[in-house]
Amino acid sequence: MTNRPQDRQMDDYNKPKDALIRELEQLRSQLAMQDHSLVGIPQNIETLTALTTAAELLLGVHDLPSLWSRIETAVRQTLHPDRMAIFFYDQENDSLSCPHAFGLSLPYIDHVNQIFREAPGSEQLHHLAPIWAEDAQTDPIYHEVQEFIKAEGFRSFASFPLIDNQGRFGGAIALFWDEIRPSTPLQISTGHTLAHMTAQAINTATLLTQTNQALLREKRLNEISRAIHTTHDLPTLLGNIVKLTAELIRADAGLLGLVIDRDIMTFYPHNVPSGMNLRPAPRPRGLAWQIVRTSDPILLNDYPNHAEAMKKWIDVGVTSFIGVPLQTHDNCLGMLALFNLNKSPCTFAQRDLDLAISVGHQAGTAIQNLRMLAETQQRATAMADALNRQAELDMMKANFTQSVSHELRSPLGIIYGHAELLVSESLGPLNEEQRESGKIIMRRVNMLTNLVDDLTALLAAETQELRRENIDTIMLVYSLLADYRMRANELNIHLEADIQEPIPWIRGDSTHLRRVFDNLISNAFKFTPPEGHIILRFKAEGESLCIEVTDSGEGIPKDKLDRIFERFYQVESGSKRRHKGTGLGLTLVKEIVEAHRGTVSVQSELAKGTTFTILIPGFFPE
User: Is the pTM of this model over 0.90?
Assistant: First the structure.
């Protein structure tokens, strides 16, 4: 049987009285809890408002110096401490530092930095949880430092960890109250949130600061590089390197040591104290020579305790030292040193050393280039002086040759004319001995005249004093054959021409070119025996004219071939000479051909003959 609605209503009315009373008590309890929650709402709203303001304060700052005061304001507005400190933990050096505090004495802060592993809040190094000590003066956890706490005068203490981007302990916000201050969940949550916002703000400001510093370092590196590569005076360059590098890594002073003559180092200082010894240092004293010897950089943040530290440097207050080699390829030219003095608390970091190493490499290359430039300029100056002197000597020689040639021509002509009159007996009869003497005079005058002509032609070739005209090569060949055919018949030598048409014309001085062929053909006649052969071969090689003069004479020894174009050189020398000459004929050939932008070469074999080959630029007439 199912219950009817009327039956259920009757059951409700029949409930025991005490059950109704229990329900009323539960309702009363719930109402009381709601009343309590309503009481805390204004406080929560106030805290949330303060945290929102704190977030706006912290997240709007982009540099660390401005951030500290914002953190202090945010802490004062949210947790209302009497004192406060921000501590940073250096993972690499396992050390604590305090960049900002208020209400705490410097001795207390220094003491905490020194004994931070035993100080209040040190357990956060391992657990990363907030700490709240209601009464640090009586809490047994801090009994080892309670005397120091009492001397400072605070009672309650709280520490909220600053967690870095890698989830490690990066420091803490430490809060202090002069009266006992019990913790509440809201305060713990507020402090934790505030520490998280602070850590994020610090990380952001640190990143921006590092980025700005990196950009500034890059800018200064570029300035240094530009200064290094645009300075062409060595002392100025060395001074700029030291000054700009010291500014780059914010060193108090610096100097550059340059090795001179392998065993002496001279120094170029920047902002160094007057008591430093900067006299040239001989090998192998001090850190400077150690860097040069090993090419290894050095970073010392405790310079006075180093074994190689110089007493005079310690006396003037050098505390930190960076030294890097001035390296170029496998050679160390010197070293660059930078240091901080005891008036400055700064130390050097690895990035400072890296920057100095980079500058050292650039500086080494620049110094080497300047030295090479200076040496090149010295050599160029010396060469220019030598060339000027040579030009003066050549001019004097040319003037002398010109003067002598001019002064000799007239008297030689007069001598030859009178000798000819004597030999022809126009001035009276001569006996045989007198006639022969006259002929000797005529031959010698001819030799001197030829020598003067050779010297004049050689001078013209050297000074490019040549007349330029178009020369028909075929006509030149026929002219040569006509001139030398009779002599060939007299000497019983077969003279022939091999013309491989078409052959190009040449542009040059016909008189001087004719002398080239005269000298080569005369030489061929001189060294070719009777019944021998002389062949003149003309052919085209591209647009150049190739001329070969070949004889079947006695040939030239191989060890003499390299010298036959030297002035006054003759293959036969001294009393053994069978063929007379000035020794200028082949020299003149070479000079005239080269003055026409051509080349001359020779091939010879003893007892078989010699071939001279001339190649001169030519053209084919339209």
Answer: no
